[in-house]
Amino acid sequence: MPAPSKRTPSSDPHRSLRAVTVANPYYSSAHDGDASNPRTIPAIVNLKESAITMLASRGRIDAAQLAAATRFRALWEAMCRSTRAIDYGREPVDGGGHADPISHRQMHAAEELRRIRPLLGENGFSLVSRICGEGYSLGEIVGPGASKRAKLKAARDLREFLDLLCEFWNLSSRR
Prior knowledge:
It is a single chain. This protein has five helices and two strands. The chain is mainly alpha-helical. It has a two-stranded antiparallel ribbon.
């Protein structure tokens, strides 16, 4: 029998779990009302997964700002994480040409991010991309040993830029 671990799941510095209710990804309106087809399902979320989930769990950003941050993250990941190089050593099959290393999804994401950049400005785009896209925390953005005022200013700036994205994508009626 292995020795019991001294580290309990709640003492892990990288994990803080919470039960939440989310929309069911397999919900079908054709079978509405069926007990096996609920609209929402329970899920477990790691609150320390990103700065955005932590801010949302503490009520520092609202649902529209969370949706804007999630959409920005999806665009960032589509553009940055799935690039691949052309393999010139592979021979085309059946007379076809070489595959294009950039997909339509990546081009759409790059175009959308290109439209967002002038709206946020260089500093705003950098802040949103580092926090929402790359997953940095506010403490890492302002630097080690920074004052609480600097962190609060970065959080306020992030909320303002997320509000701009909400207006740009029509995610809320806030002005």
